Amino acid sequence: MADYIYLLENRLSHAQRAALLAVREVARAKGLTVFLVGGAVRDMTSGSPVRDLDVVVQGNALKLKKDIEKAHGVITGESEAGQALYVRFPGGVRVEIGSTLTVTYPKPGKAVVKPATILDDLRRRDFTANAMALSLNDGSYGLLMDPLNGVADIENRELRLVSNYGFIEDPVRMIRAARLMARLSWQMDEKTQARYETGKQEGYISAMDEFHRGYETEEIFHEEDPLRVLTKLEAEGWVKHLFPALSAAKANVTELEKLREVQGQLQMQGIHPEASVANFPYLTAKMAPKDIAALKKSFARQGFVAEIEALEDEAKAFATEFSGKGAATPSQAWKLLHSAKPESILWVAHTSKNAGIQNKFKGFFTEWAQAKQKLPYTLMQEMRIVPELPGYNELLDKLFFELMDGKLGTVEEMKAYLEPYSPPAPPPPVHLRRPRAAKKDAKPAKSRKKAAVEENGEGVEAIAASGSDEVSASAPVLAKNGAGAKAAAPAKKAVAPVKPVAPVSKNGAAANGKAAAKAPVKVAAKSVAVKAVAKKAPAKAPSKAPVKKAVAKAPVKAAVKKAPAKAVAKKAAVKKASAKAPAKKAAPAKKVAPAKKVAAKAPAKKAAVKHAPAKKVIKKAAKKGR
């Protein structure tokens, strides 16, 4: 179903779709169900060009005559017996509107028809490939009905009789079979071929009535390649039963070939003329006027005869307009060609000797259409002109005509032309930051932790500086105590300033050992308590003003923030000793200050080990002071 909806939308020309829509609307208004049947369904399924449209309604189609005329359809003929209307819609579209019927044949060639359903109508047709229908009704649009498996015969490219008595009941089917084989290059299946040969030998064709004789003769002129079909029918011996004066030998073969070439060029540019009117003069070129008149009179559609006789006058009127001021520019000529009657365009393009007209047709066939390739789709995208905008297709048409006339040769000209159609740029996007939700029991950031540790380090230094001589003397014990190390872990790099003092005295080793032995355990207790007292340390500092001054003079204070707790106690001892010693003896400690950068990379354990000699210096200095 979806496949045939696609075919209905894409395999039919614009004019054919418009004609089909008009018939659907008329049938809907009358409350009739409508179906596309016959050759149109066969050609869409097989991929062949759709030449005409066969439509049936479940009701009397003859009652739709006035409504069809109101829908811009021209009635070219009708059949009372078959309850059918032959209509010509704008664009040269031929439509046959019939009724769903069931047919019986009491005698060969004598049909008796009765109203029936669509399935009964399909079962009374000639060949299985023609016994298919597509629903055009709401709710079932595009639904395929194929009760006789015609799709399989289309795939095999075979003509198969619906009824074993098909050629006997309606002998015109033999002529139709030969015509379809010539057009489609198909073959009959084995049984149908045998019955066909039997019908030729038995003379079934003698039962053909006058209406079908004229109908089948007219169908030759409606063929895409009428000369080929006429030659095939002559070879099968059917032309003498249709119209004996008609012959392929009396046709103008050269002009017919040129006409087909021009028709193909027009079709490539979107103009689809019905060539049957133009074919008639060349197929009857060498016939006598009396025979031509008799041939026209035999046609089932007398409206077709009227079109043949009006062709010359309509072509002259179009040629005058096409060569006038109204078609001076390529765009004006293009618009006129797409609005005029296709059959008149075909005849003028083929027969006119006017150089100006032929030059315009040459440009129409070769040059003008190339302007579509120059449409600036990229530039339009940059200027925010996209297909979603209203009037986009109309703008493309305007651009196409401007480019065709050569008015937009540069990018700047195109920009200037498109500027009025460019919508304003959208405002920049606004990014709103959402406030972060407050976290419960949020952990402090690392930077804040570091600041707190630094404050604790300053408190430790103040407490160490304000301690007694006993604390200063016992500082090395704290360096080896594990609990003290945990309390002051954040300040490991303060050892750096003291490291170069190691070589100061070699004779103080014994004194160093004694100092280490005398160190009381109380210092560890004090150092553990430093954590809690760290923030209160500045309050104790004013009680010992002399110690404060010593700390202020010492250059080690600047590095206290990075020093570990192990070094803090030792440094406090050094500061205490240097405070008691004379100013001259304290000078060496200042000289070694530049060694901070090298000592900063040393591990804490080495610093603690190498720091021992500093105690000798302190003891020695104390002895000299005494």
TrEMBL record:
Keyword Hydrolase: no
CDD domains according to UniProt: NT_ClassII-CCAase (cd05398)
Cofactors: Mg(2+)
Composition bias type Low complexity, residue spans: 579-602
Biased composition range(s): Pro residues: 421-430
Disordered as annotated region, ranges: 420-457, 571-626
Keywords linked to the UniProt accession: Magnesium, Metal-binding, Nucleotide-binding, Nucleotidyltransferase, RNA-binding, Transferase, tRNA processing, tRNA-binding
A GO MF label: nucleotidyltransferase activity
Family annotation (InterPro entries): NT_sf (IPR043519), PolA_pol_head_dom (IPR002646), tRNA_nt/polyA_polymerase (IPR052390)
Domain Poly A polymerase head residues, every copy: 34-160
Compositional bias per record (Basic residues), positions renumbered to this chain: 603-626
Gene Ontology BP annotations: tRNA processing
Pfam families xrefs: PolyA_pol
UniProt similarity note: Belongs to the tRNA nucleotidyltransferase/poly(A) polymerase family.
Protein name per its UniProtKB record: tRNA nucleotidyltransferase/poly(A) polymerase
Source species: Tunturiibacter gelidiferens
